[in-house]
Amino acid sequence: MKQVSDHGPDLVLPTCVSEEPGIDAVYLDISAKGTALFNRGSAASADALVPNPHVDIVDWLRDNVRLPYAISERAGPLVLNPIQAAVARRWQRPGVRQMDFVKPPRFGSSLLNGGGVIFFSGHVGADTLFYERTEGDAQDFHDKKLYPMLTESPELAHLLRADTRSGVQDAWMDRILTTGASIQLRGVMTNGSMRAVKGMFIAVDEASSPEYQAGTAGKKGEGSKLALIKRRAQEFNDPIVYVGGTPTVVGFCLTSEEYAKSDQGLFMMPSPCCPGEVQEFWDDIQRVDSRDVRLGKGLRYTCDDATGRPNDVWYECAHCGGAIEETDKVSMMDAGDIVPQVTTGEEGHLGLWAWAAYSTDPQCTWMHIVRDNEAQIKDPDQRQPFMNLVRARPWQPEGPGTVDAHTLADRCEAYPDGHMPAGVLTVTAGVDTQEGGRNGKPRHEIVFVGYGEGEESWILDRVVIDGVPGVDRDGKPVMEDLEPFSPDAARAVWAALDRDWVTADGEVLRPEAVVVDVGYDMNRALAFCHHRESRKRKVIAGKGRREAHGSRMPIITKRASVSKSGYEFQPIGTQSAKDTVYRRLGYKVGGAESIHAPEHLRRDALWDHLAAESLHTDDKGRTWWDVTKPGTSNEALDCLVYAYAALCLRKAKSRRVREASAIKLEARPVPAGNPALAPVALNGSRPGVDPLPNEGRPLAGVRRISGAGGRAAVPAPVADQALGNAPRRFGVKHGFGRGW
What we know:
Blueprint: E1 2-4, E2 11-13, H1 21-49, H2 57-64, E3 66-67, E4 76-77, H3 82-91, E5 98-102, H4 109-123, E6 128-132, H5 135-151, E7 174-176, E8 182-187, E9 201-204, H6 225-230, E10 240-245, H7 254-260, E11 265-270, E12 278-279, E13 285-287, E14 298-303, E15 310-316, E16 323-324, H8 329-334, E17 337-339, E18 349-353, H9 366-378, H10 383-389, H11 405-409, E19 412-413, E20 426-434, E21 443-451, E22 457-465, E23 467-471, E24 477-481, H12 487-497, E25 501-502, E26 508-509, E27 513-517, H13 522-529, H14 532-536, E28 539-544, E29 561-562, E30 568-572, H15 574-585, E31 595-598, H16 606-610, E32 613-617, E33 623-627, H17 635-653, H18 655-660, E34 681-682, E35 686-687, H19 716-725
Parallel strand pairs: 5-10, 5-18, 6-8, 6-9, 9-10, 11-18, 13-14, 19-31, 20-27, 22-31, 27-28, 28-30
Antiparallel strand pairs: 1-2, 3-4, 7-8, 11-12, 11-17, 14-15, 15-16, 20-21, 21-22, 23-24, 25-26, 29-30, 32-33, 34-35
């Protein structure tokens, strides 16, 4: 054996067995040189295989990416604004699998997408995938944004492979960098665009566009395009899917729907007038007479008396009501960050909503926003563009029977600490059940409502019970999925109903009546309602009546129905109840029949549930309430309906409740504005105000009572008493059904 170290690292070469020493020497010399070159190449390759050190994406983009004048008026280093930087840094968080960004246009989305693709392919060395609406849009992104950013950046230009003698080596759809990473660009409208591709970082641009909805249904449909896109990241250990876009129309806005599944982050900033406090810019835009008016957080402005044009604009502080000037915006945003608003979102799913008030575009100042607001008030055709492009909210088409979730949520107000608002005289609750599936886990939902004089109501709280305590195999406590109406579920519902509600006078109230929808798993639901623990909590079994399109049945009836198993339940006229609920949602908060809501429910799914249904009309003029988009969750709406039915049942039996909540009809005008919230045609034939819910059809003055002997004339009150004392046809079971 011979040591050879003249050509690099020490190499051990075998001695050549040859009869001629000259051949042996030549062999050793040739082998040494070749082996040294191979060793050096292997060492260089090994260095290239070592992952680049972790760096902050914002710093890396600033140091390595240059924007040419051709694609941006801000030519030079790619410097992300505070909101862009906060979004980009979420991409690097361990465990984050999806980041949503609901935004207005001209928010730097293209540069953010380009920066993400370049960072993950150029620095991380991972495959990236970018989706646009069409192939043409994807090519425009490549030609006008991505490719110039790569070629004009000296630190990155070497990553592009040189063209071969035969022509272009990499087409715009598939670029292979010298790092081995691929940049793939696709249009979702192209068949097969979700096949044979993969990416650790996947950017989905303008996800609310109709192109992402096209071809998803029908026999030849492939289903949700976003779901197919997400599967392109399954090969990677820590992938990230970025979904961004400007909202469009409720029910067809993918970006907003995905944001609702996230932690629903808001960009929170320190308040310049309240040290130690933080707040967001909320999209409540209102004209006021002067800066002395206090309406709560939101954009405020005054108009010139002579011209009617806006002449002053400021943001009202959420904490002190003081004026925050737009000149403070940049410094506030520099110190801000994304703060999640809910803890019930999908694991690893982050989100951010921001509207035009955050924009640093000189053509999108606060004065521009309030001018657009004045214009959309005067011109209905500008309302959807204003909602989508300025407020970054999905548009709910105006027309019969439509309501907007964000408009409904504007009624939220701060309730007193430690007790209910003054005016609450009685409390009811409604309980609905969801079997789970595409709308989430199996669960019970409860809405507590307080009622006062004139049936003025206060939504007190919404409770979602979707799990029960358990232990895993190691004995550690975990939350297990709930089985509706199981013993564990029953105990959880009872515990929720045992909550004390304290009035302003210190009196402790419990729900006077609780109506539970028994439409799901009826036998077990009825057994739950008639259990002695439920009866102690004044639980009443209720079931929505089957009503033909256009028909309206009384909200409650004098007689309960009886199931085949012998359990009683109360039929509920849900269409009439929804007429009442939606009409009252249209009233200005404060006064008889209006509906208040607490501030802690402002961002709750309650409002999406209340906006889930609309008033449908057929060619014969018959109207009925139903979900606008099939599969949309509306459990909270049903809970509110059943809570109102519970009040009607208590009014029918309790003079105290009836007198306390007496409605003064003359004090309630017909609501103006949205026709969805005005009285609807009864029975699909003639318009009019629906009757008081507890009245139904009045009793006749003469009624034949079974066993009273002939056709004796009995006054109506006596008839009611006789009916109440009459024996029931079936006995009531007080035990639980199968499984209890």
